[in-house]
Write a structure and sequence with these properties.
The protein is globular and about 85 Å long. With 634 residues, it is α+β, with helices and mostly antiparallel strands. The protein folds into four domains: 101 residues, no CATH class; 237 residues, Kinesin motor domain (Kinesin), CATH 3.40.850.10; 109 residues, Up-down Bundle (Four Helix Bundle (Hemerythrin (Met), subunit A)), CATH 1.20.120; 125 residues, Methane Monooxygenase Hydroxylase, Chain G, domain 1 (Up-down Bundle). 43% of the residues lie in helices and 16% in strands. Strands 4-3-2-1-5 form a five-stranded antiparallel β-sheet, with no helix packed on it. A four-stranded mixed β-sheet has the order 8-15-11-12. The structure holds adenosine-5'-triphosphate. The site of adenosine-5'-triphosphate has 19 residues, from helix 4 and strand 10. InterPro entries: Kinesin_motor_dom_sf, Myosin_head_motor_dom-like, P-loop_NTPase. Keywords: Actin-binding, ATP-binding, Motor protein, Myosin, Nucleotide-binding. This is Myosin-like protein.
Length: 634
Amino acid sequence: MEEGVKVWAAGGPELWRKGSVSKRVPEAGKKTARITVVLDEGGTAEFVVSDEQDECADVKLRNVAGQASTLEGLGAEDLTSLTHLHEPTILYSLNQRYQSDLIYTGVGPILLAVNPFKRVQLYTDEILAAYRQDGERRHYDPEYDGTLAPHVYAIADKAYRNMTAPSNEYEHRSQSILVSGESGAGKTETCKIIVKYLAILGSKTGSTELGTIEQQVLESNPILEAFGNARTVRNDNSSRFGKYIQIIFDGYGKLTGAQIKTFLLEKVRVVKHSAMERNYHIFYMLAAGASAEQRESWAMGDLEGHQFTSQSGCYDRRDGVLDSDLYAELIEAFSVMGFEENGKANIFRMVAAVLALGDVDFVERPDAGDEERLTDLSEPSRPRLEAAARLLDVSPERILTALTSRKINAGISNQVTIYLTQEQSGHARDALAKAVYAAMFEWVVGRTNECIEAKQAEAVSEDRIFIGLLDIFGFEIFTNNYFEQFLINYANEVLQQQFNNFVFRQEQEEYEREKIEWNFIEFPDNKDCIELIDKKPNGIIPTLDEQCLLGKSTDDRFAREMYKKCEGHDRFQLAPKMRVEHKICVRHYAGKVVYSTEGIVEKNRDTLQQEGTEFERNIWRKFWEPSERVLGRF
Ligand SMILES: Nc1ncnc2c1ncn2[C@@H]1O[C@H](COP(=O)(O)OP(=O)(O)OP(=O)(O)O)[C@@H](O)[C@H]1O
């Protein structure tokens, strides 16, 4: 921070401004100096820097041409090549590249992708062929040092070569690619690009003409997206579930199939969505694409008339994608995958059944006895209940009994029937709708897997190697955060730990290999946060599990238990207002998040599985086993 040095100074609409130090005055009696920065945009700004660190949070040394030759032009291709690496240089470099549609930037072995939100010319056949050739050359010639720019193709290529290379340390080792980022960052699109590249590399024909299995693997996307994606405030095609896909190859590197595992489908969306958002795409796709006769057979009217699709008044997408086109794509994907007519019909019936259930409202008659209090359905609800029953292939009375009463065990052989309140029966209805939808989603994933796994038999089992792709929700901080956000952020916290270990360990190994003398650099460790969440017996999850085992636990009791156990923990914050509102606050690696405990006990317990009525249990069982046999019964 000597006079004349070029710096970044915090402030302005772009967060950082270019400037140079014009004056440095040591502060008497302190180990600090006051510096004046003349800003390139005009004016000056003053900062205090410490003698030891010579930088402060608001002023950072700037890379100048010559130190990193590419910086002044297109930004650094690999951020680790920059002499000074900190927030302003990262932002500046990424921005420089972004302006030229160069959305990919390397950070050592990691690829940073900035969502272009438009079609960019980065995925043409020529570009793909160039990365493929580059990968091949590198594979056969260890001396070869390719010069292609960072690209997601290069990452996929490297994973593929590492997996298949017989002569190096990665011999026949399966690989994994972790795709991470906040909602709308482009994770799912990135995964699709990777899968397509791997499908081409692993294609039996060796050309870009894909065979059946490669096509089937790619066609799993429109199917999963129809049932698991939705418009959110941030993303018109937001995946509301986590996904781990294994692309499976034989010992010769030929693609033999894939397997998909899904996590944490956002079930609550089925019954409730916020302003500017929609329910799952499939509801809108059926409304826009199915024939009038089909919709009539499903008792499906306009979306405006159904409780589960009309809460936000949002019926279309901002990105111009039409639900009718998506419907056509889904039907095509079903056919490529070989879904049977019966299976398809059953899936759509389940979607319609969920929609019908949502329209069943119970009106309370205060003058009636317990048994009849809720059974007198309002005029519009009765036909909707009948439709739901017909679609689920059960009698309306059974649904009614299931949603308005509950049998509980009293003693060893006695059962007592409890009649629910209007509010409780609304919850029971929502729980059933969510369970039916989730089981249907599970079935669709299972059926898709059956199809794309089919060719695996061809591969000798010990030769079975794979590239795993993890695409899960990024870190989430909303105005209101619930149990769902907590679980997502917990998963990200664990991934962050894995990331830290991986990056720092790799770097350390490289230094050792190159015999470089170095001092260990402190890196952010989030072990304590993970322990706050999952360590027995006082972590948040063990405490929640413990509360769920107690008969009479409530959300506020859980919150109070947490305050008792965790007050004073570095990663746990508590304010008086939070106490009153039964909220808990966790200081995650990515920031502080205040979670509402509303519904947490019930959500963790997933009551339907354990203590539902006989009817609920039957429905659950029928749907839960993801097999044709089960759905075939409907
Ligand atoms: N490489 C790309 N080229 C062009 N557009 C892209 C690219 N990546 C993402 N997009 C655009 O951004 C949108 C959001 O991307 P995507 O759905 O992949 O985000 P995400 O990180 O998976 O979000 P979520 O966590 O909400 O599912 C896409 O629908 C697409 O319009």
